[in-house]
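Page header: ASSEMBLY MODEL / two components / 388 residues total.
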Amino acid sequence: MGAYLHGFGAYLPERVVPNVELAERVGKTSEWIESVSGIQERRWARPEETVADMGVAAAEDCLRKAGIAANTLGMLMVSSGSGSRGFPGPAAEVAARLGLDSTPAIDLPIASAGSLFGLALAMRLAETQGDILVVAAEKMSALIENDPNTAILFGDGAGAALVSARPGRWRMLDAVLHTDGQSRDALAFDGTGPLKMNGLTVILQAARKIPSSITEVLARQNISAQQVTAFLLHQANLNLVTRVAKSLGVDPEKMFSNVQRYGNTSSASMLIAASEWAETNPAPGPIVFSAFGAGFHWGAIVADSTA
Amino acid sequence: MPPDSTRRQRLRILVQEVAGKPAPADEQESLFESGLLDSFALPDLVSAIEKEFGIKVPDSDLNPRKFDSIDRMDAYLADHS
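Prediction written out in full:
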């Protein structure tokens, strides 16, 4: 037995927001935005488009690709740090709109790292719960104003992954999760906004904790970083992704990256990246997921292809 | 503990190596607010300090304020060497 990843899904809003549209608003140039983040453009949801709308779209994409009907799900998890109300979180609405009326649906309000935590929990619950759909949806554009340190980074979107105890495309081997609340104010949204971020603290901690959690989970499975065929990380910032590659001593080309086109979509980004990566007919071999986010929460998961 | 001029000189060399520019004459000046270092240079600076001084900065000490100036880095090393 064990847990397997059967497929991924994604949804990105239609509206493309290039750097030039933000540059004047934040008093910077397009070139500056790209140099500090690697981001060239991001997607923003329509004003009336909600976290649940995007979550449902990504969920349906994932279920279609995995060949699973929603009514067979044993559990739903929805990660979001940008839901429109305190409670109930978006999990209940996503479940209802998928036609589920008694399947447990859990919210994971963990910005940036929520999808990683969801996958790790699903890995451990799949044997008893059956098929588990992990969804991450974020409307980060609603949480930003004109602070150049945050307004340039974030985008909207949703991703999803199906985890099952039935054999599938990738076997989930191991996961490590960590939380340290000492810096909980370094990246926070108080419900009224805008989002607050101490970039120096976040980058300093993330640059250390992402590689260390990847090293930790790989060591437990006797897999070297060089053996990993693809790293599917939270797409926070291209400079951070590149730095993680350097810390691990791996080719930066192994770091799948789409932050250039979508910006930082918080907890959705890792699953959006996984969805796009899975469409590229990836080479077989071990893959690693990793994320770091508000809290701080961070960790890593290793999986291996089954064919 | 009084400032250690040798240690400060070594710190100045590290800052120059990471920033690609000389460290400021004012050793209390913020390396980040002055624009000499950005957020992505900070992890490099901490790694360089660990290597140069043979210490391990624990995650609980990964606070930018501790590495904000030559003065503060020297004070950190005085406490942890």
